[in-house]
Amino acid sequence: MSSRLAQLFDRAATAYDAERRALIPCFDDFYGAALAALDGLVPGARVLDLGAGTGLYSGLLAAGRPDLDFTLCDISEGMLEAARARFAGLGVAAELVVADYAADMPAGPYDAVISAVSIHHLDRAGKAATLAAAHSRLTPGGIFVNAEQIAGETAAEEAALDRDWEADARALGASAETIAAARGRMAHDRCVTPAENLGLMRAAGFASVRETFREGRFAVFTARASAACG
Questions:
Q1: Which terminus of the chain is more exposed, N or C, with fewer CB under 10 A?
Q2: Those residues with Cβ within 8 angstroms of residue 32's Cβ, 6 or more apart along the chain or in another chain
Q3: Edge-to-edge strand order for the sheet containing 218-224?
Q4: Which residues form the Methyltransferase domain (predicted)?
Q5: What would the pLDDT profile of 194-210 be if each residue is shown by its tens digit?
């Protein structure tokens, strides 16, 4: 990931969480599906959050499962400072790692690797390398959950997804300035279709690859590490 992208997210850190419900119009169902995929984690399971940002996804998990062991990795120091405050407020310990996970992912092993609206920033080669690295960090049978932003299957579908996203965000209270800032970050997006996301996961060695949720621009993908992994 680029240093430019890190700077954009550093600047967005303060207002980031407050904007999420407008910028992710299906927020509750989207994160609800991402959390439900992790219901089977046992106490003490080790969780790595890639592109953790302010710790929104892992923080939602920690609020209900403080018995898990969390590692949060993000390229933005400002975002992770917000995550530090979030976890302190929850009274849950977490290891915070400032790093570009696409090049320097924590070694693990982990029982779960999770990510929310982050991997789409990578180009196709970066996605493939990151997914392979995530697979290699998991214990055998460990779970991978990617709550992701997706592209349309056709140019017409992509245009419709974009139009509907902005209309929904405005209806939920996003200002013109908020949308403009989001579009500045989205200029760095490299979203792929749901089918491509699933194919990349299979190519990385994952088994039981599934799409468990999709609404508009957002989808949740889950998979398991193969028995040979670990």
A1: C
A2: none
A3: 94-98, 69-74, 46-50, 110-116, 138-149, 218-224, 207-215
A4: 47-142
A5: 999 999 999 999 999 99
